[in-house]
Design goal:
Blueprint (H helix, E strand, L loop, with lengths): L1 H15 L15 H4 L11 E8 L10 E11 L4 E12 L2 E16 L2 E16 L20 E15 L3 E8 L5 E6 L6 E6 L3 E8 L2
Antiparallel strand pairs: 1-2, 2-3, 3-4, 4-5, 5-6, 6-7, 7-10, 8-9
């Protein structure tokens, strides 16, 4: 009976398992404007953030590598702030580049400021197979050996509230939920790629002691 329940649980998990497509970072307290455009201009200053993450260093070209540059500034004339994000993410055969820019309207509420913002930009995804094999895999026409890449429109929306001591925010990225498409190979062994960009939802909060 125990084995039956274990098998049932594993089977159900296979149907409901999900994974994030956005890049993974370790210092999320410094990564607010990249995932929540409502935070643009929240510090009433010109701010720049550079983050880098190199996981499994020394394991070859396919190890996860992520680099991010974020810029944002308060613009009193616009009653808010503006921002820019540029990111490069590599995991295995997948290489994703992103650039977006946006605006956040800021309004004083109580002892803090609420920002409601959006950004728009583009996401480019490329798949470049780099197989390592002791055999000559190129003689097998069913193994993909040519790259695929595509670029799609992207947009995000978020709300962010900050006081001198705390911050809280909620946001969603990849609102258009675009599909990255591509094809490769040669007849009769052509292959098609359809990669759906899933919407991601974030909740953030922090307190300064």
């Amino acid at each position: 009976m125990k084995k039956i329940f274990t098998s049932f649980f594993i089977t159900i998990s296979a149907f409901v398992s999900v994974a994030q497509q956005d890049a993974q970072f370790s210092q999320n307290m410094f990564n607010r404007v990249a995932i929540n455009p409502g935070a643009f201009g929240a510090n009433d200053a010109i701010c720049a953030t550079m983050l880098g993450r190199n996981q499994w260093a020394g394991f070859g070209d396919g190890s996860p590598k992520t680099y991010l540059l974020s810029l944002d500034a308060a613009v009193p004339l616009l009653r808010g702030g503006v921002g820019l994000n540029v990111m490069q993410d590599q995991v295995g055969f997948f290489n994703t580049s992103m650039i977006n820019a946006g605006y956040a309207y800021r309004h004083q509420i109580g002892t803090g400021t609420l920002g409601v913002g959006f950004n728009v930009g583009f996401v480019s995804t490329a798949i470049r197979p780099r197989w390592i094999s002791i055999d000559d895999w190129e003689i097998d026409p069913t193994i993909p050996n040519s790259g695929i890449n595509d670029m799609v429109f992207d947009a995000s929306f978020g709300a962010y509230y900050q006081t001198d001591k705390l911050y809280v925010g909620i946001s969603s990225t990849h609102l258009p939920a675009s599909t990255i498409t591509g094809s490769g190979g040669t007849a009769p062994n052509e292959y098609q790629l359809n990669l759906d960009m899933a919407r991601h939802y974030y909740i953030m909060a922090g307190y300064s002691f």
